[in-house]
């Protein structure tokens, strides 16, 4: 029975990824506001009702997979050595996950789409807040930090990811994002 659930979940993730890819392609071609849920559903051979079994809104299709990514990043934070400095824990985990984090939202097309669409920028902020809260709680529990300190560290780490993404975009994708993340963590190292 566990095997069937695992297969079902993998199948669900694959369908979600296909829908998300089609949605981002349509949004890039037609514009976010001009693309309907019906358009997306038709592009992948399903009904509007079926679309809503996978995503509550069309905005969510752009961020497919972020929930799983959040769970994995938080699990890595929880697995870090208890005696490790909390800032170092954040650095090592986000360094490891920088590629999937930057790729979330369907890659470069998704990133441009988010930056140019107010509804998607708002959804991105909601997704980030979910991550920050989960990471804060994991960091606080793992390292015995008060909520304020855990919030401060987590928000600073998020700012580093944002700055690295902006620099990467400014260089037309030529900058080494991992190196930018390392530079950011070094520049903001507490102490």
Automatic annotation (TrEMBL):
Domain HTH tetR-type: 13-73
UniProt feature coiled coil, ranges: none
Record-linked InterPro entries: Homeodomain-like_sf, HTH-type_TetR-like_transc_reg, HTH_TetR, MftR_C
DNA-binding region: 36-55
Pfam family, one: TetR_C_14
Keywords assigned: DNA-binding, Transcription, Transcription regulation
Stated name of the protein: TetR family transcriptional regulator
UniProt organism field: Pseudonocardia zijingensis
């Amino acid at each position: 029975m566990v095997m069937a659930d695992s297969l079902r979940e993998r199948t669900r993730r694959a369908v979600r990824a296909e829908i998300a890819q089609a949605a981002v392609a349509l949004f890039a071609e037609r514009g976010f506001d001009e693309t309907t849920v019906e358009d997306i559903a038709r592009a992948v051979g399903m009904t509007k009702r079926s679309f809503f079994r996978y995503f509550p809104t069309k905005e969510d299709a752009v961020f497919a997979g972020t929930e799983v990514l959040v769970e994995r990043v938080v699990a890595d934070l929880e697995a870090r050595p208890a005696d490790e400095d909390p800032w170092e824990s954040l650095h090592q985990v986000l360094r490891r996950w920088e590629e999937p984090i930057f790729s979330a939202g369907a890659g470069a097309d998704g990133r441009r789409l988010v930056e140019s669409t107010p509804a998607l920028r708002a959804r991105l902020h909601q997704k980030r807040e979910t991550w920050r809260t989960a990471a804060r709680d994991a960091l606080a529990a793992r390292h015995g930090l008060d909520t304020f300190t855990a919030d401060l560290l987590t928000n600073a780490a998020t700012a580093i990811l944002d700055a690295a993404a902006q620099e990467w975009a400014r260089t037309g994708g030529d900058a080494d994002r991992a190196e930018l993340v390392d530079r950011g963590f070094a520049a903001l190292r507490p102490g």
